[in-house]
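Morning run. Coffee first, then this:
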Amino acid sequence: MGTALRGRSRALGRFGALTGTARLLVLSQLLFNIGFFLVLPYLAGHLADDLGLAGWLVGLVLGVRTFSQQGMFAVGGVLTDRFGAKPLILAGCLVRAAGFGVLAAATALPTVLCGVMLVGFAGALFSPAAEASLAREAGPDARADTFAIRSMAGEVGTVIGPLLGVVLSASFPATCVIGAVLFVLIALLHLRFLPRRPGEHRDEGIFDGWREVFGNRAFLLFAAGYSAYLVSYNQLYLGLPAELHRVGAPDQVLGLLFALASALVVFGQLPTTGLARRLLGRDRALVVGFSVLALAFGVVALRPPGLVGATAFVVLLIFGQMLVVPFAMELVPMLAGDRRLGAHFGVLASAGGVAVLVGSTASGALLEHGRVAWLLLGLLPLAGACVMAFAGRRRAHLS
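And here it is:
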């Protein structure tokens, strides 16, 4: 208990040391996730039970939602560089509110698709803007810790959102309306308190940003390696349920393991980041993080009895995530030369979205082949570790 309290005290202390704008952007991640997870966990059930859509149509709707967000991050990024973060964050909040409003009224597939596309595109507008703005606000020396705090805040929102949905016990349309109102309030909060800073590349063409990013070979190499993390993390939603089904675990276990994952991030992110900074440094921490991700898959492939494999998978996967994400976010502005941060963060997320789309399709087929699938899936983060090691040595040589 004392350790947990000290961890929370340190987190609050570091949060208090942030600038006012950085604190707002961290709070934004908490509120974004509360509003998002208030609605989205219940979408599939609504589509199947209330609207009577077939299973493949439910999957199509969820896929369209993911692609309309991840695939469009690169667009939101270049718009951030052109117009500044504040207009994109405000627009994203209002578009998501509109998307939830459409979902609340939707009774047929075309309207549902329109709603989920708006919900997804909204994230593509405000997420790169928030990440780029937070990276600039934190400065080079505090970026890893600041993004670690942001990860903690996001996980808290991920837990609160579904719980709030349970507490409200409202119908799905009513929950959508509540989510829409919340995002309007978030927009008003940013309208009042987020400083308006003009886009740093406002006098340049939209496509100039993409040309610069795709001409940055060091960044593209890093983005390819980082995509391995995103595909690996996505196995929480695909591989983990398959493993639980294999061992005959009850449905409630999945929720408990998700709660464990969130608790690990909330209480372990800052200590892990600080310890990795002292003992490993950024580049080694990235390599070790990807190696831990690979180990998570290897443990499941060994087929330990009962729930041991699934639990170890979650713990190792989240530990790898805590090592990788803050230092990866810290590295993006460095690779970008502190230029066009919106475009770089956006392309990074879009590259990951494409990788997840392809990787999920492949892993869905692989998981039918038992332990061989887990070994093959573990090769992906192992390749990511090799990419990070090579890129780190290349940076050290060039410097």
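The mean pLDDT is 85. Good start to the day.
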